[in-house]
Amino acid sequence: MSDSHLLSQTANLSTDVPAFSRGTKLEGRLSTLELFWRDHYDWLLEKGYQLRSRYRPDWKPSWEGTGKLRFNYSDNVHPTHGSVLDAERSSDGELLMLKRISKSLHPFEVEIGQLFSAKPLADNPQNHCVPIYEALQTPDDDNQYILVMPLLRSFDHPRFDTLGEAVEFFRQIFQGLQFMHQHHVAHRDATKLNVMMDARPLYPERYHPFMPWRTLDLSRHASHYTRTQKPVKYYLTDFGLSRRYKPEDRPPLEDIIEGGDKSVPEFSTSDACDPFPSDVYTIGNLVKTCFIEGVELDSVGQGFEFMKPLVADMTQEDPSKRPTMDEVVTRFEQIRKGLSPWKLRSRVVKKRDSYVDGVFHGIRHWRRRLVFMIQNVPPLPTP
Predict the structure, then answer these.
(1) Which of 65, 218, 236, 298 is most buried when burial is the number of CB atoms within 10 A of its CB?
(2) Which of 135, 151, 167 is the endpoint of a domain?
(3) Which UniProt keywords apply (predicted)?
(4) How many CB atoms lie within 10 A of CB 284?
(5) Rounded CA separation 77/355 (Å)
(6) What three-state secondary structure class fits 186?
């Protein structure tokens, strides 16, 4: 069976549309947060990065005078957060993501991002820190930088097809956080929003950065392969709260700075803590809430019982009782080796799937599963 035929089978694998906020702007107007990008359009173009037509200084909405709904036009789509925007690299047409940061608010983000993006660390396969291609200081504000990064998307969209795909996700994010810790860097916000995926292998056509379930021109649904067919790499992103320490200064004691996960026990019981065990908690809690318990609307909750003992230790209330990331990776490897190929090829079931959805996805999954077994496609999709 050809890749194109399997692609047609998997096009409906992700029928869930992620939440997308259209903001509070008037039709045909830029929000105040978008004005920054319009004002720096020409400068970024000189640097080799072209923004969408929406941000040209002379932009006029393409739908004006057509009598058609503006939602069908790509220049109507805007980011949900004013600090990030997509761009096209002029040299090769590659879609990238730009992130605007204030160095006074996040003094170490550029330094830490560049640390892991430079050789020799950049070439290490254990490194899962998002690459920073370039850090541009804006010409009108010495405190302001624009980080140029690959275009990434949420790690769980499209949905995981097999347990093996999720196991490979666990391996990469555990390894990535271990790599940061081995280089004496605490992430301090390793939560769901800051764990992302380079989905380029999955999509034969480019998807829209802010409507990723659609093609770039919004003309149709963005068809995709499964991770088993086209393995992907996951990245830890957003080093705005991250800190780097000297080896002799460990374990550090830092004032509490809450990230996306407000449930870290030590945040409510003390004024300062060691951020490394807190990292262990947050990455363990990500696996717990998104895979084991399935407490979120778009989460799963069946088939991941094998992760419960490790995750329970990672999320203990007493930070001193949590394993280090070295210990987490070692224990996880033993867990992974104990999973049979049959288990790894099992379908990921979402709690909210209806009976009809379950039957529909189940039939398609079994068809793919048989083909992959015949073709000897590995159940662990390692990139």
Answers:
(1) 236
(2) 151
(3) ATP-binding, Nucleotide-binding
(4) 24
(5) 35
(6) strand
